[in-house]
Design goal:
globular; Growth Hormone, Chain: A; 2 domains; 14 helices; mainly alpha
Length: 435
């Protein structure tokens, strides 16, 4: 078997998936604002409900990954994405160009419900695909010695699409015709829909290259007859019994932070609180992606030199140190303090992205093949829950003057994650792959 050919097919499939996801996530809120001018709360409510759906439904769906063949899972995930994008496009393009035309509340509610339902289906399909590929297919198909390198390459593609896909999507959104103001949005939907076919072809070729991956991983058991509530509760119990659960919890704690160049809350504060111009904020966001990209290049070397656990610990401790220095700059005030705050946040991205790669690899080598789908599904639900908590805190503390509370609490969560992971990694018995 040619490992290099298999790697490139996995990476190309990842590129197709991420580019479509990033373009779609960028386009949907802007299209909503085109339909509902000055109604940003509609876009916020859309993402809030979709995220809540993740927390509730993803653990249930992820159990299926462990009861189905990998090919069936891939087919189901891509089908969900295709259906969700197609349905959302039909709903959006079929709605009047502007909601100011005296539409009834029932019509608006029907539109919103249909869009949320389609968005949730597409989002769940995307997450299931990510779990089945990154957390199941990759560790099953690639030797442990190759995981650090492949994980880094996948994250580099993620960052590349994070920068490039919104730029392309933004240009497409400018395309319109009289009577077709959302023509650009339709083109983005078409781009997304067409990308699913080569993605499916690439995955099928991977399975043909390594036929063992097509086999059913475990036989169906009595758990298939459990109720939704039993599986939900039992899944969380299964998750917390996993040896790697502390590492996953530490990673989820990092999501409870507003100190991100791409964060909505920090972006709002920089504009409203510090009155920074859009160009400066845009450069700051772009630099965040650059520092994250730098982490993906140094990660394989760090893991090869220090080992998976020690290397991951070094990354999260470095992040905590930079976040503490960022808080100092924040409260120091003045132009110098602002610069120090922003620079330290950018440096902290090296630690965050490095630790994210390490946590991914810890899951790959530390979770049994028979429960990878279930455990990783609950891990994804946990980060979604952390995101809900973050936005909830932002809603409770909406004032610009209250942002200092979010800054301090964010730093405390990062420090807590660093301390807890350091304690866990010092005593865990997981094989330190890559050392």
């Amino acid at each position: 078997m040619n490992i290099e050919r298999l790697r490139w097919r996995i990476l190309l499939g990842r590129l197709l998936t991420r580019s479509g996801d990033q373009a779609w996530d960028f386009a949907v809120p802007l299209a909503l604002l085109r339909i509902f001018p000055d109604q940003i709360r509609i876009a916020a409510a859309y993402y809030l409900i979709v995220r809540m759906g993740h927390v509730i439904l993803l653990p249930r769906l992820s159990v299926r990954i462990d009861r189905m063949s990998r090919w069936r899972v891939a087919q189901a995930a891509i089908s969900m994405q295709f259906l969700g994008v197609l349905g959302a496009a039909v709903v959006m393009l079929g709605f009047p160009a502007s909601a100011n035309a005296g539409l009834s509340a029932s019509v608006t509610l029907a539109f919103a419900s249909g869009l949320v339902a389609m968005g949730l289906i597409a989002s769940l399909g995307s997450t299931l695909m990510d779990i089945s590929i990154a957390n199941d297919l990759v560790p099953a198909a690639v030797p442990p010695s190759e995981l650090a390198s492949l994980n880094s390459r996948m994250r580099q593609l993620d960052l590349l699409t994070e920068v490039m896909a919104p730029v392309i999507a933004g240009a497409l959104l400018l395309v319109s015709l009289p009577g077709l103001p959302l023509l650009g949005f339709g083109l983005i939907a078409l781009w997304n829909l067409l990308s699913f076919f080569p993605e499916l072809f690439l995955l099928r070729s991977v399975f043909h290259m390594q036929p063992d991956l097509l086999k059913l991983k475990v036989a169906p058991t009595a758990t298939m007859r459990m109720s939704l509530w039993e599986k939900f509760v039992g899944g969380w119990r299964q998750f917390f019994r996993q040896p790697v659960a502390p590492a996953i919890l530490c990673y989820a704690a990092l999501w409870m932070s507003v100190l991100s160049p791409h964060g909505v809350l920090l972006t709002g504060f920089l504009k409203d609180g510090w009155d920074l111009d859009e160009v400066t904020i845009g450069l700051f966001r772009g630099a965040g992606a650059f520092f994250g990209l730098f982490a993906t290049f140094v990660y394989p070397r760090v893991i090869q030199s220090k080992g998976l656990l020690r290397g991951s610990r070094g990354f999260v401790v470095f992040q905590a140190l930079m976040v503490v220095l960022a808080v100092v700059g924040f409260f120091a005030g003045g132009r110098l303090g602002q610069i120090g705050f922003l620079v330290c946040i950018l440096l902290s991205r090296i630690g965050l992205y490095g630790f994210s790669l390490g946590e991914t690899q810890i899951r790959q080598v530390g979770i049994g093949a028979d429960v990878r789908g279930e455990v990783n599904g609950f891990a994804a639900a946990l980060t979604a829950l952390a995101t809900l908590g973050l936005y909830g805190a932002g809603a409770l503390l909406p004032s610009t003057q209250d942002f200092s509370i979010l800054v301090v609490s964010s730093a405390l969560f990062v420090i807590l994650a660093a301390v807890r992971f350091s304690m866990w990694s010092a005593k865990t018995q997981i094989i330190d792959a890559g050392h």
